[in-house]
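Q: Got a minute? One more chain.
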Amino acid sequence: MFDSLQSRLGGVFDKLRGRGALSEADVDEALKEVRTALIEADVELGVVDQFIAKVRPKAEGEDVIRSVTPAQQVVKIVHDTLVETLGTESVGLTLGSPPAPILMVGLQGSGKTTTAAKLALLLQTKEKKRVLMASLDVNRPAAMEQLKVLGEQAGVPTLPVVPNQTPLMIAKRAMAAARVGGYDVLILDTAGRQHVDEQLMLEAAAVREATNPHETLLVADSLTGQDAVNIAKAFHARMPLTGIILTRADGDARGGAALSMRAVTGAPIKFLGMGEKLEALEAFHPARMAARILDMGDVVSLVEKATETIDQEKAEKLAKKMAKGSFDMNDLAEQFRQMKKMGGMQGLLGMLPGVAKIKNQLDAAGLDDKILTRQEAIIQSMTKRERADPDLINGSRRKRIAAGSGMEVSDVNKLLKMHRQMSDALKAMKKGGRGNPLAGLLGMGGGGTPHGVLPGRK
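A: Always. Here it is, folded:
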C-alpha cells in the first residue's frame, strides 16, 4: 500500500538531504512535489490542500531553515501531519452490553461479506467473544450461503436462513437469537448495490434504527480511489459511520483513499483487509502507517505479527540448534513456512525501514511470495537424509531434485548456496568470528547478488 506515494516522497526528501542547508525556495519546491505526489496517489484535492496548508508554515519556519538537520526536520513535520490526517491514534471497536450489534454497510463487490467473516474471526480469536453472523442480503443470489460457508471456515455460527423474509425481519430475528444464545457480538451483513441508491440507504437506515448498532462500519474497496471517498461521503451523510474498513489494501499502490476518508467523514479507519485469507484483517495504526509511507518501517507491527504467528516451541528448538551452529534443510523449510504465516515476502519487506530505496533491486531479484512456495517444493523433493545432511547432494541428486520439484538444476544450486551461506553465518556467530554474519545470512556476502537472498526465480 502507498507504493507510489512512498517512492515519490522518498525522492523529494533525498533531494533535500543532499542539499544540507535549505533555503525557503528549496522548501517551497519540495512542498510542490509533495503536493503533486499526494494528488497522484489519489488523495482528494481538498485534503491535499489542507495537508500542505498545515505543513508549509512549519516547514518554512526559522526552526527548520536554521536547523543543523533541516531535511530531517521537514520529514518529521510531514510525518506528524500524515499521522494527524490519518487519525492520530488507533481506534478500536466500541462494544457495549451484549449482544453488541455491528452493522456492515457498503457497495456490492467491496468485500463486505468476506470482511464480516474476517472481523468475526478476529473478535472470536483475539477478543475471545462469542459471535453470531447474519446475512440481510436478500437480493444477491447465494449471498446468505456465502456467509454460511465463510462462517463454517472461520468456526463462527450464522443465523439460519428463513425464506421470504425482509432484511428488517431478519435483523430483528437475529437480535432475538443473539440474546437467547448468549452471544457477545452480532455482525449484520447488509445488502449492497453497484452504486449508491435510495433503496440501499433506506434499507440500511431501517435496519440501523431497529437494531441500534454499537458500530456502523463502512466497507470500502481501496482500489476504487476517489470513488471510495465519494461512497464514504454518501453513506456518512445518511447514517453516522463509526468506522471504516478498507479492503484490498495489500494491492493498492496509491493509497489515497486511506488519507482522504478520515478527513472527509471524520470516521476513523479501524481495519485494513490485507489479503484473501480470513486471518488477513489488521488493526489500523495511523503512526505506523505514516512511518511506512516515509520508508521508516514498522518494526512494532512486525514484532506483533511474529508473536502471533510463530510457534514458540519450534522457535526455541531452532534457536538451540542455531546456537550449536546446526541448520539443516528442514529448518530452512520451517523458516519459509513461518514467513508465509507472517504475510509473505512482500508483507515482511513492507515493514522494514529503508526497503523502498532498494525496491528496484528486490523486484529484479523476483522476491515475491511465490518464491517461498518454490523453495519449499525443492526441499520436499529431497529425501529425509538429504534434508538432514545437504552435503550429500551431488550432481545426480541435484538433477533428481530439480525434476521432482519442476525446477531447474540452477534453482537447486541457488537454494543450496543460500543454505550454505546461512550455515556459515551461524558458525561465524557461534565462534565470535569477524565479518558481517548478517550479510552472509542475507546472501549478500562475498559479492553475492539479490538473487542469493531467496533463489528459485524462473
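A: The chain is about 55% helix and 10% strand.
Q: Perfect, thanks.
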